[in-house]
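User: Batch of two.

Assistant: Item 1 of 2:
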Amino acid sequence: MRRTTLQVATAAAALGLLLSACSAPDTGGGTSTATGSGGSPAASGEVPDKPSAPVTLNILDVAGNSKLTTSMVDAFVQENPDVISAVTWESGGAPDLVGTIKPQVDSGSLQVDLVMTGTDGLSAGIDQDLWIPLVTDYGDRLSNQKNYLEPAAKMQELAEGFGAVTTYYPSGPLIQYNPDVVKDADVPKNPQELLDWAKANPGKFGYARPANSGPGRTFLQGLPYMLGDKDPSDPENGWEKTWAYLKELNQVIDTYPTGTGQVITNMADGTWAMIPTTTGWDIEPRADGREPENIQAAAFDDFTWVTDAHYAVVPKGQSPDKISAILLLLQDMLTPEQNAKAYDNGYFYPGPSIEGATLDKAPQASQDVVKKFGRDWYDDLIESKPKQPPLPADKLVKAFDTWDREIGAGKF
């Protein structure tokens, strides 16, 4: 949901220098040790089973993950004051992540101890050599990863041993529409019907720039499967039908917002009557009042879920005590009882990445939201339709670049 590209992330380095100066101080026990430029993580044998003294963790969230995991973190801190004394959260944008973290890693002075990110920030940090190989070096202390749901386990593979999946969802692409404008009989069942409707109703369908929008990115990556392109994993050489389709659709789209929030506003105020969406972006805006409750959603007859996940990554140069605390925290977050809290307000529906983290284990407030604003056909659709992980970072960057140059240029 809410991420962008390696190119943008790298270009944000100058801004990140300013942001890093404003980050929360590294307080509490287990202060990070300077290790020089691109400092390597503590050797596995140096990390104790438990911190020598309670630590303070400063967490940077660039994926909206705090909505899903704050209650998990708070519960662990309350139950384990001898491990973590306090936690601070700050939020930022994925484009700024490299610019924020790289100066801290290069100087050996970390203000951020743990990052919660999507695939974009994960990949940008791998590209810039910013993360410790958390799972590669300490996977034996994250044994609850063996209980990942199968699609979450595939998302874990994308981490290349550097990050740990905390939350997962099948994402989309789905269609959301205003029933006051769109008749049930006219709801598109395939991309061609969507194109026909958009042409018949110019200016009433839209989506956000994929590099800045989870639903936009999911729509972009889902089209090659629905259109029967020769290689859905190769946007450069295998998306001939997708690029042709998007160019034709572009003729009846006036502008592309640079964030999903504006897409929701366009639906709420009637500017648009139909958008591509995901399970979470269908549920939460209706639950929190940003969209009317009567907004409807539908699935294409034949589609493939493009999955998504959030990851926990640790900047290089982290102290052994803080690595120890982070490992204990993540292990606890990957229990069914804790991970079920990821249902939250439906933002990442379902949300949990672990087997057994069922809705009945979620807080009552989450159960109430899902009961009222979820769709009774979601779970069957999640079970029955195929699922594929998103493009790897380098190919996703190329897809974004092609879209920016050939589709959205001048309109976002």
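Item 2 of 2:
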Amino acid sequence: MNSSAVADAGGPNFQPVRTRRAFEAVCDQVRRQVADGTLLPGQRLPGERELAERFGISRSGVREALRSLELAGLVEARTGASGGFFIRSSGSDGVTQAVRDMVALGQVPTASVTEARIEVTNVALRLAAQRATKEELDAIEADIEHHAALFKAGHGSRNTRALTEFYRLLARATHNEVIVMLIDALSEITRTLLARIDPQPFPEIIQVRRKVLKHLRAGEPEKACAAMAAHFRNLNRYLEEKPWAQGAAGAAGTAAQAVAKAAGAARKAAAPAAAAGARKAAARKPG
């Protein structure tokens, strides 16, 4: 049977590939058919054996391609009787994981993430100031007050994605789907990095968000941008003070932390009064 002729009616039309890196050609074909709408979100890909026949490659090559597409966030694996590989709905998860991994491996500094976050958020704030409806601004305010109540009750936590809902609502107020994905990805990356250091954000974050919303309601996007950028830079300084929170620097950071702890214990034993004074003078952590 000619493998190039094997295709479901109205389904994807995969062609055999002849290349030393066959899995890359497979990935390219899947990406192209997702882009042109032949493959739709939620659609199940043919099974491994059928894909191998259609592409004219080994099943191991198919598995490698599927793993690559899954890591890129283009497909997802589901288990069970009706399981298999499915085209993912559009979203930022693939971008988020890719950048988070690069930061953890030391390939991207946190300063670069912060710089990108500031610039993208500035665009979002300027567009939101022009396009946001009253209902969208009210939704942002409701989210702020929801988290204010959580913090007051001692339940604020970075260990939940709900903490970044403020940025997602802000991005949606731009009415631009690409900005929504970028904002969501950058916010989630920063949240997870901070959660490794301390899961408890400081309530000052509520003050910043209220200030940003106040400027948006007043039609002052540049003031909103300045307030948000200052907050992001403050978070970045906090992250850079804690290199052990990043995977690439884990071993070195742990060793440095142990040395610092030992040195602190020695100083405390030698001069308890000075150590106590230093602790009282320590700056508070940012939210």
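Confidence is low (pLDDT under 50) at residues 1-7, 244-263, 269-285.
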